[in-house]
Design a protein that fits this description.
Keywords: Acyltransferase, Endoplasmic reticulum, Membrane, Transferase. The protein is of the alpha+beta class. 41% of the residues lie in helices and 14% in strands. The chain folds into 2 domains: 87 residues, no CATH class; 135 residues, Gcn5-related N-acetyltransferase (GNAT) (Aminopeptidase), CATH 3.40.630. The structure holds coenzyme A. The site of coenzyme A has 18 residues, from strand 4, helix 9 and helix 10.
């Protein structure tokens, strides 16, 4: 330092002293942050009254914070695949592949998500921008509108999807109703209970949000499937398409 006043004001007489001092300050801050994030992780508890998906999400965030601090964590504790809700798809008897239900991710567009929807109904091509915009729009609704998927770990393809959104009413003490939509299982993955597990998951989510019922529309050929999922026929569906 060539400023003549430097020596007058500086407390540290050598660069080593400055370095040691900085290390002491920021080193201890670092250790404090690590204790803090580990403490949050240790105190994490699942709450039956709260929506499952957001709790799983919070858990994943805690794990990310711990890994972000450079600490190591046993793999079985890292993923949400070991919460009871997501475990339900692991290791089912007639299928070796490990599958778990998770929320739709931006990257799923390139994993055959749109192609899968085409097995359900007309779905024109969606540009990356359109996909991202709609994804963000839906994500802003949080637990009130979730799209879930199952990814085949071997092929990296999305093999099942389904969604539920929450309708808020004034009737029934300002009650809420869950609407299940857009359920489809890839033709090669059908008959392995994936559809049923997806319905159970979406139903459980609606219930955890506080819905008093969950409803859906279906074709007559799928009636038996939904009955196996615990649904029953009620009244009829009406529609008016806009030209
Ligand atoms: C309907 C669909 C989602 C079912 O998915 P899936 O993974 O093959 O169904 P699951 O293996 O979970 O079936 C669960 C049970 O329902 C039965 N089931 C499935 N589809 C059925 C049908 N169409 N009719 C009668 N029973 C059916 C299964 O045999 C199974 O019975 P089990 O538990 O006694 O063994 C799937 O066939 C599909 O994606 N179809 C095309 C898209 C579609 O129609 N979506 C529904 C929109 S409303």
């Amino acid at each position: 330092m060539n400023n003549t006043l430097f020596d007058l004001f500086v407390n540290f007489r050598s660069s080593k002293i400055i370095w040691d001092s900085l290390e002491k300050k920021y080193g201890s801050d670092d250790a404090g942050k690590k204790k803090y994030v580990v403490g949050k992780w240790i105190n994490f508890k699942m709450d039956n009254e709260k929506p499952i998906m957001s709790q799983v999400h919070n858990y994943e965030n805690l794990v990310t914070e711990i890994l972000g601090e450079g600490m190591k964590m046993c793999e079985t504790l890292q993923a949400n695949e070991h919460t009871p809700e997501t475990d339900m798809l692991a290791d089912h008897s007639n299928d070796d592949q490990k599958c778990k239900i998770r929320r739709l991710d931006l990257a799923d567009k390139n994993k055959g998500f749109i192609e899968l929807l085409r097995q359900l109904t007309v779905c024109d091509s969606v540009s990356d921008k359109e996909f991202e915009d709609r994804f963000k729009e839906l994500a802003s609704e949080g637990d009130d509108h979730i799209i879930c998927v199952v990814e085949d770990n071997d092929t990296g393809k999305i093999v099942a999807t389904g969604s539920v959104f929450i309708e808020k009413k004034f009737i029934r003490n300002c009650g809420k109703v869950g609407h299940i939509e857009d359920l489809v299982v890839d033709a090669n993955a059908r008959g392995k209970q994936l559809g049923k597990k997806m319905i159970e998951f979406l139903t459980k989510h609606a219930r955890s949000i506080g819905c008093y019922k969950v409803i859906l529309d279906c074709s007559t050929e799928n009636k038996a499937f939904y009955e196996k999922c615990g649904f029953k026929e009620k009244e009829i569906q009406m529609v008016k398409y806009f030209p």
